[in-house]
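User: My instructor asked us to take a sequence, write out its structure as tokens, and then describe one feature of it. I'm not sure where to start. Here is the sequence I was given:
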Amino acid sequence: MIKFSTAISLWATAVAVSSGPAVLAQQPQTTTPAEDTVKARTNEVLLDVVVRDKKGRAVNDLKAEDFHILDNGEAQKVASFRLVQGAEAIGAGGARAELDPLRQVRLVTMIFHCYNNDARRLAHDAALDLLKGELPQNVYMAVMTIDHKLEVLQPFTNDPALLRKAMDRATGSQNTDFSKDTELVRSHLEQMLGPNTTGAQSTQGQIDNRASTLAAQGRNANPADLATVAMAQMLLQMIQTEQANAMTEGGRAEIYALLDSVKEQYRLPGRKAILYFSEGGFTIPQGMEEPFKTVISIANHSNVSFYAVDARGLTTLSANQAGIDQLKRAAQSSQDQQTGGSSQPVRPDEAQLFDTAIQTTRANTQSTLANLAESTGGVLIANTNDFRTPLRKLAEDIQTYYEITYNPDIKNYDGSFRKISINMSSSELRVQSRSGYIALPPALAANGNVLHAFEVPLLMALDSPELPRAFGFESEATHFRGPQNQPVCDLVVDVPLSDVTFQKGNAGQFEGRLSYVALLKDSRGEVVKKFQNEIPLNVPADKLDALKASHFIYTEHFDLPPGRYTLETAVLDGEGKRISARRSSLMMPPLSTALGISSVCIVRSMKDNDGSAADFDPFAIESKVVSPTLAPVISKADAKTLPFYLVIYADKSVAAPPQLVMEFSRNGVVLGSGSPALGPPDKNGRIQYIAMAPVAQLEPGEFKIRFVVTQGSETAEETASFTLQ
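Assistant: Let's start with the prediction itself. The structure tokens for your sequence are:
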């Protein structure tokens, strides 16, 4: 026990360290830092427009006055107009200019996602047909596949030999395809089980059906027959469940892969297309609606059009059949629930009734391809075994199109989707162009800085003269040292969930939504790091109070060059439509091997390190991870001690060990000081230190603890503050 004064004592311990990266406490999430500086851009909207007549022939003799553009229903004045044709641009007055291949390229990204051998063969032949003849000077192609994630087989090139080789790899039949085997088994089981097989009847229901059928034939059902029915029903249900799950997981993987394929293409000007060979398309899982819309939004922002090819070719199966079958199963489950009685156990298909009914509206996967293509100015190629004619049109679209710009008069940049409509002077003409864009403030919609809709009100709040403060939260950037003595920043955001609004949802659940944006700006005011996320909060009614009594805590650590920085953080209570924002400063010390001390953090809790804290996490201590809290207000009734955490960095060139002095003050008056013993540094020269201040015996007030460490002639210090009530 170390005496600060007759009234104050402090118990302190030092422990060894293990290390790792960011700690995500309370809510798991994925946060993507944006490395590029946010810069302003023009308000101008650029459209690539392809026009054809009723017979599908390109129309290339139109004038600006032939196009009537509506932006959210409001007529727009054309600011610039030209026809791009081959290697030339033809202006409104007919003047021709050569295109600079470095500034006006055409990119075609081929993405193959086909498992069936027939689909791979059709996709391969169609892609090869597109390569016949020499590629124009400024047309470049790349070849990619989706195999759980986006894989690049050939970067952009205009060398046909390299492209053919990559296409062969992407569509080769080296992988065994068992999907036809599964479909044959499924068909056999459905025929064997007889009526109502698409109704997901209970096993007993199918057995009763089988017994009735045999009785009508004058036969008795023996145990082997009934066991066969039970096994068939079990296997059929397993196949149906697996296929539904595969659709969901496959849809999730495809959406993120397509997002990766478009979000960097803004970097080059010119018309860009993605030729997407898919085996029937994909479903949009529940919860993935916004990421799918983001794919379309970013494609439009980056001037990318999707040309989607259903590589199944000509098929007699209705595109809606999967949805019909799922709806029948949901209907049968609903009927069984009503007639089975409360004493009957709930089957899995009954428990999933609501989800199944929703999923039926998404089961026509080809419509997803159509939506993707039509919303980005491309086309869907489907229900045919001959892709040559439509792909020739793709080649024409890449080479010949109109470029039109206009300046919309947007009063409120609210992040909403603004629909674009193009009406032609003649009803004989058909138009391909993007369907719209997300309304983002010019100063925020920087090149390459992809913004989600939830970020817009938060960034606008940070840009306002007076920061809103609708509810309480804290954010802070702290400094530590990395393994190479480089300055490391730890960002901490702490939001009390008692301030988040929850609304009663379905099945007794309460739903809330928490969104945040954190900007780290350098001394020039430029954004050097950006973190953002939107977290849905769903909780049963009986656990709502416990959740609201907790905190959402987010931490992230990263290397940060020395200098002075400003941290701007905004948090949105989604259901309550309330925003709070705050601003703080940070000084990152230079890279140094001299004596140093980290920021001092007040500890909220110590949790077991489950392995998520990777190497050299400043908050990882042996088998524990520190969860920090910021600018706390402490109640004497709730806490008897207050723990502090800091790291001392010893100078390895000085033989004398570091010495620590802690000075305790209340309302500006020094109460006492003490010099606790420190443990030895670890192999990296760090001494991780946790101190416990006994607040139970203190009078209420504003407290500050000053930590001063000395080693030889060197000195370093930090402070921490808290309020005691």
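For the description part of your assignment, you could build on this observation: Residues 1-41, 196-201, 316-363 have pLDDT under 50 and may be disordered. Try explaining in your own words what that tells you about the chain.
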